Amino acid sequence: MKLSTKLLLGAMTAFMLNQNVLAKEVNVDITVQELEIEIDNKGTKQMMWTFGGTIPGPVVRVKQGDTVNFNLINLKSNKQSHSMDFHAAQVDVLDEFSEIKPGKSKNYTFKANYPGVFIYHCGASAMSEHIARGMYGVIIVDPKDGYTEDYPKPDREYVNVEGDLFEAGTKPNDITMGKGWKASLINGKVFHYDPVHDSDASLTLESKPGERVRIFFVNANINESVAFHPIAGIWDRVYDNGNPKNIKYGMQTVDVAPAHGMVFDLISPKGKDTNNALVNHRMKRALNGAITVLMNHEDYDGKKGQDGNLVLREE
Ligand code: CU
Ligand code: CU
């Protein structure tokens, strides 16, 4: 064998080994809980259906090429059938995504082939009601190439999910038609991170002036797209679907379709304290809950948006 061929084979073997080492199997177990949960900063409770007891459900984070070994548990104490639809999966809607009754569990696997930020949601009938009651979450698939010039490492990361809140007891058909709509939820609460419009709000997103803040945004509204805009800022980069290949620069307002996700990078001015309000610029939505304050201050809380602390919640 020629030396060059040997070297090539050696390099290929090393590459394949490397790929095997990098691609992991990730176990994800999520339990459906139907429960009364706080839907605003005052502590008002409403009967919601959840993945794991929170809205949104737990953030699932894997790397492109990983295999997700997923287990859905529908507690015996629940009343409804539920299912799990990962938008990051390429499977069979009639098989993997089928619904299971209370007391049952369901296991399936899928390979995360595409990088990005994807919604997951319950697809059990009536799907409008299951989503509108809070059955959604986020799966982030980090690109296999990691951070690059096109997809720089952010200083801080947050997950921001907008969803609907309907009056308790609204019938599924009315939910589908938008009747009984009450407010917008951001990560499960009305004005969750907006002390300006809600004096009971105790949290804001934070960063240090000049940092690159990355927002993994998902629209969990059942009917309406989100016109996502950073008041007093410009999106430095927007990655459609969160894929590093889909870059837009210097954007003001970007429409995110229902059940779609995008990555938004924002860089605040250096050397002075500033604030942004990340809004759904559809005013009906903004003024009914869909505003998030981002404070870029020298005395920022450095733990926020770091080490997997992507969804801020009250302690
Ligand atoms: Cu469900
Ligand atoms: Cu879907």
Task: Please state the structural category.
Answer: mainly beta
Radius of gyration: 21 Å
User: What is the CATH level 1 assignment of the largest domain?
Assistant: Mainly Beta
Low-confidence segments, ≥5 residues, pLDDT <50? Answer: 12-20
Sheet having the most strands: 6 strands, mixed
Estimate percent helicity: 10-25%
Strand order of the largest sheet: 10-9-12-17-14-15
What proportion of the residues form beta strands (DSSP E)? 35-45%
For the record, the CATH architecture of the largest domain stands as Sandwich
Query: Which ligands does the model contain, each kind named once?
Result: copper (II) ion
Describe the protein's architecture and organization:
It is a single chain. It is built from 4 helices and 19 strands. The chain is mainly β and 315 residues long. The chain folds into 2 domains: 25-142, Immunoglobulin-like (Sandwich), CATH 2.60.40; 156-296, Immunoglobulin-like. The longest helix is centred in the first third of the chain and has 20 residues, at 3-22. The chain is globular, with a radius of gyration of 21 Å. Residues 12-20 have low confidence and may be disordered. Bound molecules: copper (II) ion (2 copies). One copper (II) ion binds at residues 49, 80, 82, 122, 124, 130, 135.
Short structural description:
The chain is 11% helix and 39% strand. It is mainly β and 315 residues long.
